[in-house]
Predict the structure.
Amino acid sequence: MHGNDTEPDITHFRARLLHMREELAALDETRDASSATVALDQSSVGRLSRMDALQQQAMAQSTRERTELMQRRVAAALRRCDDGSYGYCADCDEPIDPRRLEFDPTATLCITCAAARDN
C-alpha cells in the first residue's frame, strides 16, 4: 500500500501497543479487585463520608471510561498494524511522523490534519 523510507517500524510500535494493552488489562484487574473489596455501610457512615464515597465512585467511573477508550484505541491501532495502514494519516494518507507515534502509538492523524481538526 505504502512504500517509502518514512514508513514506521511496525514491529517496534506493535510491541509498544501490546505492552500498552497488557498495562491497561492489569489496571483493569487492579481496579476491579480494589473496588470489589469496598463496602459502604450507610447506617454507620456520616453525610460527608457518603459524599466522599460518591465522589470516589464518580472518579472511578471516569477512570474506567478513559481506560476503556484507550483499550479501544490500542485495539484499533493493532488492527491497523495488521492491515498495513498503521502509521499513515486517516485523513491525508501521508506518513505520521515517527516522533508523534512514539508520543502516542495510537495516533491516527498526522500533526497537520490533527491541527486542522482542532481549529
Summary: The chain is about 65% helix and 0% strand.
